[in-house]
Amino acid sequence: xxxxxxxxxxxxxxxxxxxxxxxxxxxxxxxxxxxxxxxxxxxxxxxxxxxxxxxxxxxxxxxxxxxxxxxxxxxxxxxxxxxxxxxxxxxxxxxxxxxxxxxxxxxxxxxxxxxxxxxxxxxxxxxxxxxxxxxxxxxxxxxxxxxxxxxxxxxxxxxxxxxxxxxxxxxxxxxxxxxxxxxxxxxxxxxxxxxxxxxxxxxxxxxxxx
Length: 210
Hints:
The protein is mostly helical. The protein is built from nine helices and no strands.
C-alpha cells in the first residue's frame, strides 16, 4: 500500500487524510447511533406505565433524561408538567419538540462532514489526475523544443493520474454509502422520537381530564 501511495505522488496525500477522517467519522457514528443510546425499545412503555398514577419526581425525571435521547425528549415533557401542572397539551408538545430539535442536531453531528468527503474525494482524485497529465505532457517536450520524451517520466505521470483517480473513488464510494446509511438511520430515530413524544403528550393530557 505504501508503495502505491509513493507511486501516486504528492496529490494523493490529501486523499489519504480524507480516508482516515472518513473512517474515524464512520466508527464514531456507529458507536453514537446505537439503538440503546437513542431509543431503547421498552422505554416509552415504561414511562407510560409509571405516569399512569403520578408524575415522576424530578430525580426520576433526571435519570430518565440521562438514559437516552428518547429519555431526554420524554423527560422534557415531564419537567414541563412538574413546573406547570396546568400547562396545555400544545405546550407539552412544544417543549418536547424543542428538545427534539436539539437531539436531532446531535444525531446529525458529523454527517455533513462525511457527505463533504464523499463529494470532494472524486474532485481531489481528478486534481491528482490533472497533475499526472501535466507531468505526462511535460515529459514529452525537451528544452530545445524537440519532441521525444522520457519514458520513465511518462510512466510516472500515467501512474499518478490513474492512482489518484482510483483512490478518489475508493474514498468517495464508501463515504457516500455510509452517509446514506447514517442519514436513513437518523431519520428513523427522529420519527421514533416524534411519535413517542406525541403519544406521551396525549397520555398525560388524558390523565389530567376529570
